[in-house]
Amino acid sequence: MKKIIKKYWAGFLAIFCLFSCVINIVFACLFCDKAPNIFTTISGWVSGIATIILGCIALWQNKQYKKDNEELMKKQYDFEVFKTIVDKRENYINTMKLRLYQFCDKFNYKKVTSWLAELLVICGERPNCSFNDARQPVYIAEFAENMAVEYTDLKQMIVDDWCRGSDADEFIKHLDKYFIALKTDISKINYCSIHAEIESFNTKYSQMFLELIRLKNKYISWLDADINIILTQECDNLEYVKKHYCYIK
Asked: Which residue in 88, 210, 219, 238 is a FRET match for 113, CA 20 to 30 A apart?
């Protein structure tokens, strides 16, 4: 009963006022010699009812304004959250593209071949060179170490992506293969057989590097397609976007 009254209080109030008005007018007609005239009674009730109606309208408007204001604030908050997520994702994509380009540019087999060609010149100046793992030139170790740092950072950046798909996993798998093979071969470079080293690099890594580039481009295409879906199809679904990008505030 209390729930019904709470829900339809305005209707009950209107019925009560109407009932009281009718009763008062009836009594004014029955006891006209002892009560104010009918016109005065009706005028008083009309004035009172009008005041009550205006008060109810004011209360409704205030409630509606509060509701609209809360909805507006929620929309503004949701927009800010959505913008924050999208900006963060776009920064990640731009950074990832740059890191992928830098790694593939710095450690492609052509650059390594060019570097080996420089070693060939050095080798020509050392006719009696002998190969010893414990005495490899420092810059060979530095090259391998720098590549390891770049590879580790790049791979971790991809792995940490909550919403990465199969394209990312496929790229990581081939990146592992390329890095391990290249690092292993670099660590075994022999000055005395530098001609064979160059030929081996060109043969071994040309197809492997082309496959790495193909998978890199495929992964980048997925990154762009993923953010475009969010911007075009899921822009009104904040909960999906938050879950998709594992957004925690």
From this structure: 219
